[in-house]
């Protein structure tokens, strides 16, 4: 059974690799058809950044709805925020708009998450 799972998990990876091996054109033509002023990598970067940046947003929304810090780990948000600041610097060094834009938004979301945690945690201590 375990062997079957390994085979089933490796099939999509193998198919993906085979498909990409035939996409040599993707390496040479980097101009976007949709927005010619952008490189294709910028568009993929913006799409990828959208998903990874807003992946933490549901936790913030849930905390604001329940008006409680229960289930929130401020250390995780702070650590992610610090590394996102490093990503911003890296994005500036390599001149990558998607890296800079999404990580600035991510830092703001983490700032609000930690701020909401501090606010609700203080309120919960006062209510005891």
Could you walk me through the main structural features you see in this protein, from its secondary elements to its overall organization?
This protein has six helices and no strands. The chain has one domain: Monooxygenase. 78% of the residues lie in helices and 0% in strands. The model has no long low-confidence stretch (mean pLDDT 76). It is flat. It has 128 residues and is mainly α.
- Taking all Cα atoms into account, the compactness measure Rg is 20 Å
DSSP summary: helix tally: 6
Helix content: over 70%
Q: Please name the CATH topology.
A: Monooxygenase
Structural class: mainly alpha
What is the typical, i.e. mean, pLDDT?
A: 76
Uncertain spans = none
The span between the termini is 52 Å
Oligomer: single chain
Describe the protein's topology.
Elements: H1 2-21, H2 25-28, H3 40-54, H4 57-66, H5 74-93, H6 97-127
Helix pairs in contact: 3-6, 4-6, 5-6
């Amino acid at each position: 059974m375990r062997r079957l799972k390994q085979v089933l998990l490796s099939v999509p990876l193998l198919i993906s690799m085979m498909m990409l091996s035939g996409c040599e054109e993707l390496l040479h033509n980097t101009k976007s058809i949709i927005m010619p002023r952008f490189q294709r990598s910028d568009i993929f970067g913006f799409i990828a950044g959208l998903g990874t940046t807003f992946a933490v947003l549901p936790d913030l929304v849930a905390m604001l709805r329940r008006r409680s810090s229960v289930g929130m780990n401020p250390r995780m948000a702070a650590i992610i925020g610090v590394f996102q600041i490093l990503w911003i610097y890296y994005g500036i060094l390599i001149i990558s708009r998607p890296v800079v834009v999404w990580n600035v938004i991510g830092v703001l979301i983490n700032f609000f998450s930690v701020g909401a945690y501090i606010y609700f945690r203080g309120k919960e201590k006062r209510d005891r």
